[in-house]
Design a protein that fits this description.
There is one protein chain. This protein has 417 residues and is of the alpha+beta class.
Length: 417
């Protein structure tokens, strides 16, 4: 009998342990390919309001989000499992290491590798900061594993499976021969966990890298011009009966989807995709921003400040970051007409969300109204002559902001491109 559906994508580090325990416990699981950065459906947003993965929907209708909760739920389906420890203290320690991997290790690794592979805008300071954070987190693991074979107790636990899945990104991109020599305990532990049958059954064969990828912006790919196709030979003139059938088929075709309201605007001199590539592939302050202001035409585009209205309700900064991600997902229908960044500034239980956008045309509402939660944000039109520095700061992610006389440091940012 089917256990349910797991919404994720191949290689998602937060889902590796989930798939491992599902296979070990013989849970009949349907994997539904779901890639957030490619956009998700409105139906999926009803399952996971932030549009993130993984998510689980059981055949009985039980719905669960958040990777740790799903991993624990799947593991607990086997009442005789040893993966959740023998005692309450074991279980608490397992949850502790899973939380550490999810909130300390992975964000640092993601901020380190995503800009390098072109998934996020490249900002050297942000990459360096993420690298430092990831290294500090992994150092904690290295010290712990100096005297411990596994993370909790003397046998494999869910903490090992989950953390190995998370840290696999490091071994995929950065942890080369030199790094492994400098971190022998983490390397030994990772190899041990990886080669456990429960883990190796759901991943590819382990292959260590010899050299880490270069920490430079991704190269801009040249766009190939489409080859000219030869004109097809004239088809034989259809008979009268065939013509009637074709006309009937055309009449049955559904009406085309309504066009976006901004589609009626004339073609701009600055192609927004050119700017998006420049921002993604070049140093932000040194190259990208000067290029932008040189090419920006206020008659073609307008600039807007975006402020979240309910900052007092924000708690953990990673949850605030997820809020931005969900908002950006729902803006997808306006992707051809929008570019912008929004960031979380501050710390847990004392943070604000603020950003800046470039919008095609002079009215922001047609672009933003595609997102149902736009009313949670305040839009303020900017004037380049007065607000250029503000836009630079919002898109560079390297300066704090001041709100009511209080300074808030940059915590995390998201790019809509």
């Amino acid at each position: 009998m089917s256990f349910g559906k797991l919404y994720t994508y191949a290689g998602n580090p937060r889902s590796t342990a989930i798939r491992a325990v599902a296979k070990e416990n013989k849970l009949d699981l349907e994997i539904v390919q779901t890639v957030p950065h490619e956009g998700v459906s409105q139906d999926y947003l009803k399952i996971n309001h932030l549009g993130r993965v993984p998510s689980f929907v059981g055949t009985d209708g039980y719905t669960l989000t958040e990777c740790m909760a799903i991993a624990i739920y799947f593991t607990s389906q086997n009442e005789k499992t040893t993966l959740l420890g023998k005692t309450k203290q074991d279980y608490a320690s397992i949850v502790r290491w899973m939380s550490f991997a999810n909130t300390e290790v992975l964000p640092g690794l993601a901020g380190w590798f995503r800009p390098i592979i072109g998934r996020d805008p490249f900002n050297k300071k942000s990459v360096d900061d993420s690298k430092k954070a990831a290294q500090q987190a992994v150092k904690v693991l290295e010290q712990h594993l100096w005297v411990n074979t596994f993370l909790v107790g003397e046998r494999l636990s869910l903490a090992d499976l989950f953390t190995a899945g998370i840290i696999s990104r490091g071994f995929q991109y950065f942890y080369d021969k030199k790094w492994r020599a400098d971190n022998p305990n983490v390397t030994r532990w990772f190899e041990t966990v990886y080669n456990q049958p429960i883990y190796s059954a759901v991943v590819d064969k382990l292959q260590f890298i010899d050299e880490a990828i270069k920490e430079v912006p991704p190269r801009k790919e040249k766009e190939e011009k489409p080859k000219k196709e030869q004109a097809p030979k004239a088809a034989a003139k259809p008979k009268a009966k065939e013509v009637v059938e074709e006309e009937e088929e055309e009449e049955e075709k559904p009406a085309p989807k309504p066009k976006h309201p901004l589609e009626a605007l004339p073609k701009p001199n600055l192609a927004i995709d050119d700017w998006k590539r420049k921002y993604s592939n070049e140093e932000t302050r040194e190259v990208a921003l000067p290029w932008f202001w040189e090419n920006f035409n206020p008659e073609e585009y307008s600039l807007w400040r975006v402020d979240y209205k309910y900052n007092k309700e924000l708690t953990e900064t990673f949850m605030s970051s997820n809020l931005i991600t969900g908002f950006f997902t729902r803006l997808d229908a306006s992707r051809k007409y929008l570019f912008g960044c929004a960031s979380v500034y501050g710390v847990a239980n004392d943070s604000v969300i603020r950003g800046a956008f470039m919008v095609r045309g002079q009215d922001a509402r047609p672009a933003f109204d595609v997102a149902p939660d736009i009313d949670s944000y305040e839009l303020s039109k900017l004037d380049r002559s007065k607000d250029q520095e503000f836009v630079d700061d919002m898109w560079a992610w390297d300066k704090p902001i001041e709100v009511n006389g209080k300074t808030y440091e940059w915590a995390d940012g998201k790019i809509f491109k």
